[in-house]
Design brief:
By secondary structure, this protein is of the alpha+beta class. It is 20% helix and 16% strand. Among the domains are: 259 residues, no CATH class; 54 residues, no CATH class. It has 13 helices and 18 strands. Strands 2-1-4-3-5-6-7-8 form an eight-stranded mixed sheet, with helices on both faces. Strands 9-10 form a two-stranded antiparallel sheet. It starts with 10 loop residues before the first helix and ends in an 11-residue tail after the last helix.
Length: 477
Amino acid sequence: MGNPLPTADIIEPITEWLKTCDSRHIGSCVESNTSSTKFSSRPYRLIDVEEQCIVRGNVQGEYLALSYVWQDDTMKTEDQQQFQLSLDNADSLTAPNSMRQYISQLPKTIRDAMELTIAIQKRYLWVDRLCIVQDHPRKEEEFMRMDQIYSGAYMTIVAAAKHGMYCNRGGTVHDPALASPNDWFANFEIPQHLRIRQYYGIVSRSKWAKRAWTYQEYILSKRVIFFLDTRIFWQCECTVWDKDHLQPKQDMEAQTVPSSTSGHTRSFSVPSWPDFGLYADLICPYNGRDLSYDKDGLSACLGILNRLAPAFPSGFLFGLPRIYLDYALLWQPLSRQLDTPEYCKRGEPMELVAISRGSANGKDLRHSFEERVFAMSRYRDAKAFRPVHDDEERWIGVEYITPSPGESHHRVVATGDYEIDLKVSDNEYMKDQVYDFYNVLWVQHGGDGIMYRAGCGRILTEYWEANNPVDTWITLG
């Protein structure tokens, strides 16, 4: 990324940003005396960076929160144990200076965050590794409160650089050694929205932006400092500032940056009605994030769901809104799972989903739509084209690499024959005509008495009812 920048001190701009936001953004970033504190209750525990110990969260004083990636590559060896709060040490760590003996076992990102907290003259810091008892059987309760923890923080530190908060392992608050930007307009006067878009582009390519847990930590925070390899920048509910170009203007109100400029969700408040569109906008990007453990899939977004819950009658069931459960069950994956066969490869074997007994007039669907299939799926002349995906990893078509006149390229999904016995539509659909349909979930037996999703779609009401469906009870896995 280039040589370190000569001007390194970052404390002054951060302090100035906080001071300006405190005075100008009352009612949005800063709670007024009459505003509700419903979502700002204190964490159970905090790190006292002055006394170097763990204290109860009900102490007086503002606290910072850290959003970071757990995997730390600054430890000397892979086998070196990283320290965390546990049932065995929770009591002993409440004694003043008790954390000093474990400093070398803490990830450098946490040590750097503690150093920053002291440097901006704050006393308390919240970090999940040290403020949640990691082996406590009820730690899920703390996950339920992530919306309160991050929205209640005075500021959230986002460690999105190569080595946590800095681009090299020796960086400190007073000498972060920011790398030289390699973008062509770094020192040119360009429109504000282009510069901001570039910043968020860098964030989106970071390891931090790929992790599932960091998604809600960012969304739920009111004020954020991003630490990147080449720069730091500020984002609050009202504006974006950086160290060199986007600075607060003392003679006027802070400039507001519209959410469409950054492409990120801001001012996340409780909707007044069960807004499924908002739910989908929040949860769909989350589903594309990475988890070290699949079992954490629900835990890592409980803060978002907890914030939405008051507007959704009966809340959520395994992350799906109960009021829209029939519709929410029709979710589709953003992209193919990496551990499933790559059907684009020529001759790659593929196991097709089996058709099981359904409820169409009590018939076995294998008799209604019979298909004898060879277990293979491939591209014919596969080298001639490839799938094209958008920024969200959704399939949007194919790219012809070496098209030739008269050539025909197609994908062979399956070979076989079929017989149709179901009543189906052979009419053309009119653009301005209104059609009634059912959302349909296709399920299959899993061999354990549980039905599993196999596909989803829509069927016109008249054709669904023409097949005399019957009600049945299933357990959906």
